[in-house]
Each structure stands twice: as structure tokens, then as C-alpha cells.
Design a protein that fits this description.
With 180 residues, this protein is α+β, with helices and mostly antiparallel strands. The protein contains 5 helices and 8 strands, in the order βααααββββββαβ. It folds into 2 domains: 85 residues, Roll (PH-domain like); 75 residues. It is elongated, with a radius of gyration of 26 Å.
């Protein structure tokens, strides 16, 4: 039996790759780490300033106050950087043209046609599939994957359910996505 699924690879697939590859969660961890380091440095400089004030060393105290104020201003300027980066990435992904891709379910396996490139993955090479934010991912044993935004399938959700049924029929296991 041969089934053919036509879909568009667009920004949705890029967003899913970003999220499951670390993406926003990884950036949030880095932001927390940066904030903790800034807090440690700020505490150290406040302690030095307190000692300078207590010892009545006015010049070192004034320098520490200026440095602490600069550090606090720098921290506030960095606070919106993650949000700005996410918006910039989203805009960049949406600028890319979409690619028409054809996925065929054959008795031998899955054949994908991307432009002029045709690749065949035998059923033994198909590892698993999962759904994440309305994107179907079919993973291969070699680490490659096909990301299929369900909204871009020619016949939508009905076609996605047909594809999932075919994957189940060939013994492909569903797993939960790795959302970091």
C-alpha cells in the first residue's frame, strides 16, 4: 500500500527544533546562572563598600558605589535580552521560504522527497515518532528526523492520523518528546 503526504517545512519545525534542542529552557538556565553570578559579585562589592565606609576610606567607597551602580544598571539592561532574542529568532524563521516536501509510506519504508533529493528509510531504520505542539516528528535510528507541522499537511489532521496509523501498523513506537 502506498500513501502520499504533502506538507510544508516552515518556521514551526524550526521552533520545535529550538525548543527540544535546549532552546528557551536552556537560555533560562543560563540566565539564572548569570543572575546568581551577578548577585555574588554585587554582594562582594557591597561588602567591600561597607568596609570602606566603616573605615572612612571615602575614595574607595565612592569608587565601589559607582561600580555597584554600573553593575546594577548592566543587570537591568540584560534582563530583556532573552525576550528580544526569542522575538528576533521567530522573525528570522518566518522570513525563510517554506519548502514543499512529499512523504510516501511504502511497503519498504518511508520515502521523502525534498526538492530534487529523494531518500528512503526502511522500516527497520524508523526508531519512533512523537507529537509536540502540533508537529509530528518521525525519528530514525541514525539520529535524523522528519518534522511535519500538522497544520501544513494538505488534508490536515485527518492525514496526520492516517500517517500515525501507518506508523503503528509497522510497529513504530510512540514516545514522549524531550522537552528541556
Amino acid at each position: 500500500m502506498q500513501l502520499t503526504f504533502d506538507y510544508q517545512s516552515d518556521w514551526r519545525a524550526q521552533a520545535v527544533l529550538f525548543r527540544i534542542g535546549g532552546g528557551a529552557a536552556e537560555l533560562a538556565k543560563e540566565a539564572v546562572s548569570l543572575r546568581l553570578r551577578q548577585l555574588v559579585w554585587l554582594s562582594l562589592w557591597v561588602l567591600i563598600g561597607t568596609i570602606a565606609l566603616h573605615m572612612r576610606w571615602w575614595l574607595p567607597f565612592a569608587l565601589v558605589v559607582v561600580f555597584v551602580l554600573a553593575l546594577v544598571a548592566h543587570s537591568f539592561l540584560l534582563s530583556n535580552l532573552g525576550r528580544k532574542a526569542a522575538f528576533a529568532l521567530r522573525a528570522q524563521w518566518r522570513e525563510k521560504p517554506t519548502k514543499a516536501i512529499r512523504l510516501e509510506v511504502l511497503d519498504e519504508g518511508l520515502r521523502e522527497t525534498d526538492g530534487g533529493v529523494v531518500s528512503l528509510a526502511p522500516w527497520e531504520a524508523v526508531k519512533s515518532y512523537w507529537l509536540f505542539r502540533k508537529v509530528l516528528c518521525i525519528e530514525l535510528t541514525n539520529g535524523q528526523s522528519a518534522l511535519i507541522p500538522i497544520a501544513t499537511l494538505v488534508y490536515g489532521c485527518e492525514h496526520a492520523e492516517l500517517l500515525i496509523d501507518e506508523l503503528k501498523k509497522h510497529g513504530i513506537q510512540r514516545r514522549e518528546p524531550v522537552d528541556k
